[in-house]
Design a protein that fits this description.
This protein is an all-alpha fold and 186 residues long. It has one domain (10-175): PgpA-like (YutG-like), CATH 1.10.3760. It is 66% helix and 0% strand. The longest helix has 29 residues, at 148-176. The protein is globular and about 60 Å long. The protein binds magnesium ion.
């Protein structure tokens, strides 16, 4: 029996993540806009471009790849009624006391440090941009966004934290008079 492919390159993982998110109605820009909204409050040096780049970098990482693929598939399976037992209705109805989706979100959001988790909390509670849209659409019959809204919010939170790290690295480099670091280092 030939083994099926389970190892993917960074470029492949980014593409597969983009594809599955697009299938679920989410594009990179809408995630980056949340990061931009969060970080532009603290600095006027933030560009949407660096937020988009951060989201793309995060989506190319193996651990995040596994989270995104799993989250999207759980929602799809719940929409199709393919789980058995009580968990089908719990996920499909996005039961408020079910927290496994938030656990996954917290894990992803801490990629660039603990601050990512507070950024995630802000997005989770205040439901910025696409997260609000996903949340609203998830209430419609036949649509389940129980895991998707958290994974999208968590990616935005991690990207937002990466942007903050980059800006601080820039500031520190200026202070030391050393050459500006490459953003690809972070
Ligand atoms: Mg959720």
């Amino acid at each position: 029996m030939s083994k099926k492919k389970i190892i993917y390159t960074r470029a492949e993982m980014l593409k597969l993540n983009k594809d599955i998110l697009a299938k679920r109605g989410v594009d990179i820009e809408s995630i980056a806009e949340i990061s931009y909204q969060q970080q532009s409050k603290y600095s006027d040096q933030v560009s949407l471009n660096v937020c988009v780049e951060s989201v793309e970098k995060i989506l190319s990482l193996r651990d995040i790849f596994h989270h995104v693929q799993l989250a999207c598939e759980i929602d799809r399976l719940a929409e199709e009624g393919l789980f058995q037992g009580p968990i089908q209705d719990i996920i499909e109805q996005d039961f408020g006391l079910f927290g496994v989706d938030e656990t996954m979100g917290l894990d992803v959001s801490s990629l660039y440090g603990t601050i990512g988790q507070t950024n995630f909390g802000d997005i989770d509670v205040n439901k910025h941009g696409i997260v609000q849209k996903l949340n609203d659409a998830g209430k419609e019959e036949g649509i389940c966004h129980t895991f998707l809204d958290d994974i999208v919010g968590a990616i935005a939170a991690a990207a937002s934290t990466r942007v903050a790290q980059i800006l601080n690295e820039d500031l520190a480099s200026e202070d030391n008079g050393v050459e500006r670091f490459s953003i690809f280092d972070i």
